[in-house]
Amino acid sequence: xxxxxxxxxxxxxxxxxxxxxxxxxxxxxxxxxxxxxxxxxxxxxxxxxxxxxxxxxxxxxxxxxxxxxxxxxxxxxxxxxxxxxxxxxxxxxxxxxxxxxxxxxxxxxxxxxxxxxxxxxxxxxxxxxxxxxxxxxxxxxxxxxxxxxxxxxxxxxxxxxxxxxxxx
Length: 168
Prior knowledge:
Number of strands: 0
Structural class: mainly alpha
Helix content: over 70%
Shape: globular
Radius of gyration: 15 Å
């Protein structure tokens, strides 16, 4: 389980770094946010695949595939990505949130520590996804999107690192 913890900690650190970059350079990040997030999603997808490969956790296949495919798309199509980022990110927040909630229930049922952090993380991601979907055009035309993304990546990353430290 130590390697499983390490996967969570690495994923959390990646999210915190990407969130920090987005908040530090909001205008530049708005222009290249698809590329930044694409890289993060690629790394996250590979990380989920490693959890499947090394630990046989089949529940990570779909999430890894979703992250990987979305990451490749966001890197290859930056122009189109800039127009649909709110929808893509909103969908990613919601899917990841439901996945986190499912994992927290499974992990809590298995007697794992810190399952409630996964639950909070999942609920927060679903709420953020809902906010992005509520006003995608207004958000996509402003620097506010970068601040929301950066802040949510940092918060999700910190919670993911805490989950890693509190596991078994």
